User: Fold this.
Amino acid sequence: MTPPLQPGKAGSAVFTGLRRFAHAGVGLVLPALLYGLWLLAVERRWLPEQILPAPSLVWQSLQELWASGELQGHLLASASRVGWSLAVGGSAGLLLGLAMGLSRTLRDYLFPSFDVVSQFPVLGWIPLLIIFAGIDEALKISAISIAVTVPVAVNTLKGIGNIPPALFEVCRVYRFTPWQVVRRMVLPAAAPSLFNGLRQAVMQAWLTLVFVELLASSEGIGYLMVWGRQLAQLDLVIVGMVLIGAVGVALDLALRTLESWLVRWRPPAF
Amino acid sequence: MKRRTFATVLGTAPFINLLPMGARAAEARPQVIRISFPGAGTGGRPIVGGSFPANSHLQRAIDEEFKADGIRVEWKHFPGAGPALNESFANGLTDFAFGHGDLPLIVGRSTGLKHKVLMSAGRGGDSYFVVPAGSTAKSLTDLKGKRIATFKGTAGQLTTYRFFERFGLSDKDFKVISLDSDSTLAALSTGDIDGTVRAPFDVEARGVAHRIHEILNDPYITRPSTVWVGEEFEKKYPEVVQRVVTRLVKVAQWSTLEANREKQLQLWATSGTAYVDYQKGWESTKDLRDRINPLLDDYYQASIRNSIEEAKKYKLVRRDVAFDGWLEPRYLNNALKDLKLEDYWPQQAADGKVKVPGRKL
Assistant:
């Protein structure tokens, strides 16, 4: 979204740069205030130390857990669950979205059911899933996959719906095979919406992950958080939260980068 | 109403000076006494069994004690067990714990919770390792790498780890997951877990699971649980604490009488734990005083010290836990003296052997 720079106006460029910096800085105000509130709450003992640990303790726990390799182990366990679910749920969502987007008949058959099912929160699935999938990995992967499928399918569908009909006509004129239509036209045209769906899916995946890891786990970030609570080490819970946030931001950035690389053919001022 | 209060104050004024300084500084009475159990019955019902503090709730003994004074007793049962009790206490919502397990007790103190140990809530008993009915495992060694359930953060976790140790194994040899007791039972029936430490009688009778190991009456494997009071409450209302303790000791004595065995087993079973689990679990205890024992004897102290070391070894606490200054046996001793029960219970040495046998009945 870079606004095209006007040549010969260097002062304005500096100004724009400053303004951007200020914009970024403003975003830090709220976290800084929250951090200040946290420090104050700890110092004034608004909450017992067993409930709200000091930031320094959280930092110390983070370092200790990292140094012992425990944190990486938990992170890896969670990441692999999220990875598998994104692969399974993401491809299911993509196929579903494409099918409903490209075939009017399939859409008529599938969409009403899909619409209803997608209204259930994932947590509502858990009791049923436990009966079918037990409490092991299968439960975790299937629950997260469901959470992933819905946003991916919805956004794929939306992305296809937003493609100008003219483009389909062009495909017909060129006598594209269905595969060519999907690969050469639909996917690139729907890419922004697709990535939007994927980013939502990643967020949903992490949310669900933490919940399912509260059930019968022996590793993972969600497990670390429950464990911290059981042992009255709330610093571990906060470490888990910080970590989930950090991983979420990193994944989002990665997806944005991937997206801009994939759609690099687009003119920059879209 | 107001006038009467005023009159009461006037009426008692001349006597106030007769009271020792400490008692005068302390406020006379709380409006409510909040007593917490680290557990709940099946499905979260507010009933637990298996101990004399549980009897004090089931028989409403404490409520009765304070009824005339207009002091309400609020009973709390936490399905989240010992760790949930710690959270409640940290939030200032609990005054007494009636039977906290060793691990959450120690974890609580390690995080700076301030309580005073009043008496032991019970001790002894047998432990069993149970596997699903279809399991072919003959011993713990066969279950290496398998999924074992325990309610992490509770005393059950350390008991399970001691079980592993007894067979030359450790928690690292298994996939140890955390489940509460209701979920453990369900998971055992569906085969979602490969084993757990729990009472085997009911599940065996129903053909759901069977035991592969039993460790009978081993004072090292099982550890005493604890009755404590919050430090602040104790400082403010020492007389109330004394009355609670004395009443509890009375209930403890009632609970040790053979004539009351059947009655209390029935009471305990209202928690939802099968009657047969209690009945068989207590069958080998010929003298109930061996397990229903409030003393803070050498065995109690050595056990807690041992548990502290274990908690440190398994990295379940990160700060040191000071044992000194934790116990407050004054109230218990007063109660034993008042009720003439000083020699009633057997005193155990640090290793669990009886040092001074209980009074001949």
